[in-house]
Every structure is written in structure tokens, then in C-alpha cells.
């Protein structure tokens, strides 16, 4: 396992997790949630995904920026497309994923590609997110985008992970979004590990730190492994619904 620190053109830090061995591997761009510049909390699940043979890029971004983080998120998306190969990643096999506030931002990249430019991702992964509020990448509401008949000529698979014990964002959010996607004939798969909002990242909330930390609890290990499997499978094209 390798971990490299780099920066986007806008100066935001990016951790790059590389799989064992050489060669070119599928790429996952993984966004953290609401906490500003918290890329480090994604480390446990990013390492677990990279160990399964993918390159994982985890950038910082700030939800408290005037544009709610849009510029940081889109800058990291451009960085992944343009620089993934520098780290052994294949930009042609790019998955965009996000947790919590990052989930809707990630999923929206498949639903409103015309707003973002560039090639569509091969899949998107939403982890413990809401899809009935404006996405920070597009400004539009993902579930409402489905009503717009946006000409999905090449539908992008949507993979969702949501803990059944999540007391921050109810699992019904992902269930309802998955149902809406199916209604519109779009490919979707939902995984529901028996864990909470942090457990899907192989982590737990530490009140003393005021942030997440890695957790060895059984439910968190299982939840994080589920997320890592979905991320790696989506990038490899083996978990597409």
C-alpha cells in the first residue's frame, strides 16, 4: 500500500492511496462530508478499497466556502481526470463517490453531466447521503433531476451504501432514492450494512476530538468493508447492477 500527498491546482490537499504492485488500476475519487478539510477521516475505507486493486484519491474540500464547496469539488474532479495516470490510475475508469454531504455531490455528477463537462464516470457511489437537497457540485436536487427527463443516453450505474443504524441520515433516504432510480429505469444497487453513519467508513465519532476516528468495532469493520467492496467493485465494473 502506498499513500502519497499531492495538491489540486486550487491548492487543496489530496491523499492518493495506491494498491500493491504496479500497472494501471481503476480510479476512485472519494469525497468526505460536511466537516471542512477532513480528508483524513476517509483513510480507513480508502486504504481498504485500495487494497482491492484500485487507486483512491481523497481530496480536501470546504463545505463552509461561499459556494458551499462546489469549486473545490469540481477542481478535484478535473484533477482526477487529468492526473490519475500520474499515480497509476486509469482516468477512463473513474468512479466518483462521496460520504454524507459528499454523497449527493458525487451522485449528481452522473445525473447532470452537461453541467460539469468532461466524460461521465463509469459509476457513482453515494455513502450515507441525502438526495432530496441541492447537490454541492451541481446546485440541483438529485431526486428532482430524475423528473427532468435529462436524456440519459448512457445511464451511469448508481451504487448506494447506507447503514441501517444511521441516526444522522436515515436509511430511508437511500431506499427512497433507489426506488426513484428504479422507477426511471436507471441502474441502481443499495447495500445496507448493520452499522451507523460513521461505521460505513470503518470509523466512530469521537466527542473529545469532535471528529471521526478509526474503529475496530465489529459493526464498523463490517460496514467499512462493505463500502470498500462497493467502491472497488464499481471501479472494476464487477458490482454494477
The helix content is 25-40%
Average pLDDT works out at 93
Q: Quaternary state, please?
A: single chain
CATH fold node name: Rossmann fold
- What radius of gyration results from the CA coordinates? 16 Å
* Low-confidence runs of at least 5 consecutive residues: none
Work out the number of β strands. 10
Which outline best applies? Answer: globular
Number of domains: 1
SSE pattern: EEEHEHEHHEHEHEEEH
Beta-strand residue percentage: 15-25%
Could you describe the largest sheet, including whether it forms a barrel? 8 strands, mixed
Helical region count?
A: 7
Name of the CATH homologous superfamily: Alpha/Beta hydrolase fold, catalytic domain
Strand order of the largest sheet: 1-2-4-3-5-6-7-8
Describe this structure in words.
With 241 residues, the protein is α/β, with parallel strands linked by helices. The protein has one domain: Alpha/Beta hydrolase fold, catalytic domain (Rossmann fold). Helix content is 30%, strand content 23%. It has seven helices and ten strands. The strands form two sheets. Strands 1-2-4-3-5-6-7-8 form an eight-stranded mixed sheet, sandwiched between helices. Helix 1 packs across helix 7.
